[in-house]
Design brief:
HIT family, subunit A; two-stranded antiparallel ribbon; 4 helices
Length: 193
């Protein structure tokens, strides 16, 4: 029987196909493992965030407890991608960020027995943004938590200015330990399970 070069090439191609499929599957698995590992890593501007501080995440956004909250329940919601300005977010990131903020705010308001929420973005340095990464402050509010309701904006602005100067905020609020923040994040995670 004569074997033509064409039939020999076809046999080689068929014999190699399962190997190439296996290589593609292995490559896809490795790629998805790397992607899953990357999804567990969080950055807030130049700062690496410990995953113990994160209590909620989607493929585009995450929420973390605050090192120095203004009031109980004060958290931040950020896009996963490091984006300096709100207008630089994609439509999908914008939607996911606000839907996440809405969902988180609703649960934290109930959890903290609050009656309102303050949601704020300081977009750019002149607006008081010190960490160059878009973030929404969510602060559950109760009657009398500030003498004048709008004082919260001054407090947010002051917090950001002090953070920018020395990373040491006003003396009345102390840095919380990782254990305190991890415990709070664990409690909040239960709200979304």
């Amino acid at each position: 029987m004569l074997i033509s070069p064409l039939s020999s090439a076809l046999r080689s191609s068929v014999a190699l196909r399962p190997i190439s499929v296996a290589i593609k599957k292995a490559s896809s698995f490795a790629s998805s493992s790397i992607k899953m590992e990357a999804e567990k890593q969080y950055k807030f501007g130049p700062y690496k965030i410990d995953e113990k501080e994160v209590f909620y995440s989607t493929h585009l956004s995450y929420a973390l407890v605050n090192l120095r909250p203004l009031l109980p329940g004060h958290v931040l919601v950020c896009p996963r991608r490091e984006v300096k300005r709100f207008t630089d977010l994609t439509p999908e990131e914008t939607s996911d960020l606000w839907i996440s903020a809405q969902k988180i705010g609703k649960q934290l308001e109930i959890y903290h027995k609050a009656s309102s929420l303050t949601l704020a973005i300081q977009d750019g340095p002149q607006a008081g943004q010190t960490v160059p990464h878009v973030h929404i402050h969510i602060v559950p509010r109760k009657g009398g938590d500030f003498e004048n309701n709008d004082e919260i904006y001054d407090a947010l602005d002051e917090k950001e200015k002090e953070l920018k100067k020395t990373l040491d905020l006003d003396k009345e609020r102390k840095d919380r330990s990782m254990e305190e923040m991890a415990q709070e994040a664990d409690e909040y995670r239960k709200l979304f399970s």
